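Schema walk-through. Below, the input block comes first and the output block second. Nothing else is stored per chain. Lengths vary across the set, and this one has 91 residues.
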Amino acid sequence: MQIEYFKIADKTKIIDIRSALDFASDGEQNSINVPRAILMSNPELYMNKKDSYYLICDKGILSLSCAKILNALGFNCYSVAGGIEGIKKNK
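--- output ---
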């Protein structure tokens, strides 16, 4: 359920679940920002059950818990391993 950032084929399907302020300061290119509480309360507004989505947070912990819940609801989600911090270390 976790994936390394460099293995993501379609980077337009990355959803940054951090706050709008955190996203504005260092959001990943091509990702969209949908804060965690908003995404979890209405996932069908941002995702469909046919595509794969990649959730990203600061360290990969919150995105993993969200991915597990969303997968149980029938969505196809992965957590970006290490989150934004991991991406920064590997650039």
